[in-house]
């Protein structure tokens, strides 16, 4: 696991132990029960992370003690037992690496609201650089992290309020970049979903129509693709050469498909 000194978002006693250690050292610490009362909740979060889940899954916004009384079961028998009967715990800790202040990049869920807002431009920049390098999947992950930061902040605002709209307008270009990555990864249905969600709010977004048109074309939704490309031209006639190229490509693919179908079904009705 990783600990950020000073955050105390896991167990403060772990930080106290680590401050006495050096990289490469391994030590054993016996911690009194009063220092590890919250360990069951912390352990559940760590197990969620290891399983690829939200570390706060199942928790409500209240103090940690209230959390313990709120939930009869944490979903793990050993943690449930510890929660009912707190015990002194022994931790074997090995320090693998120590990074200097400012060098660690937190996961979005571990950031404060201010840190999330400040991190978005840098994450966006890193995504753009990865995309230029041809590392499309890695770029998509960066755009996803930036979107997650802004979505988390947006959930705390009243939908439709000025602050909510301002955050949504920051999310939209990131989501379009994410869709571009997904187009190249041939994950077309995800592109359809995200572009449609953008167009439900911003009916004049040319890029969303264009990317959705490409996704429709890729999954043989011919009429829908043609309608989206027509909308692109209506909103921005200067894109006619690009749209014409996409339509020619779609027509060529349709001809190829028709030829393949004729060969595949040739003589099927004469047998």
TrEMBL record:
Q: What Gene Ontology molecular-function terms does this entry list?
A: aryl hydrocarbon receptor binding; GAF domain binding; peptidyl-prolyl cis-trans isomerase activity; transcription coregulator activity; unfolded protein binding
Task: Read off the Gene3D superfamilies from this record.
Answer: 3.10.50.40, Tetratricopeptide repeat domain
UniProt keyword annotations, A-Z = Cytoplasm, Phosphoprotein, Repeat, TPR repeat
Q: Which InterPro entries match?
A: AIP/AIPL1/TTC9, PPIase_AIP, PPIase_dom_sf, TPR-like_helical_dom_sf, TPR_rpt
TPR repeat intervals? 206-239
SUPFAM superfamilies in UniProt: FKBP-like (SSF54534), TPR-like (SSF48452)
List, alphabetically, the GO terms of the cellular component aspect: aryl hydrocarbon receptor complex; cytosol; plasma membrane
Pfam families named among the record's database cross-references? PPIase_AIP
| The AIP/AIPL N-terminal FKBP-type PPIase domain, residue ranges | 1-95
Question: Where is the protein localized?
Answer: Cytoplasm
Q: For this entry, list what GO says about its biological process.
A: protein maturation; protein targeting to mitochondrion; xenobiotic metabolic process
What is annotated about its quaternary structure and interactions? Interacts with RET in the pituitary gland; this interaction prevents the formation of the AIP-survivin complex.
What does this gene product do? May play a positive role in AHR-mediated (aromatic hydrocarbon receptor) signaling, possibly by influencing its receptivity for ligand and/or its nuclear targeting.
The name on file for this protein is: AH receptor-interacting protein
| Gene name as annotated | AIP
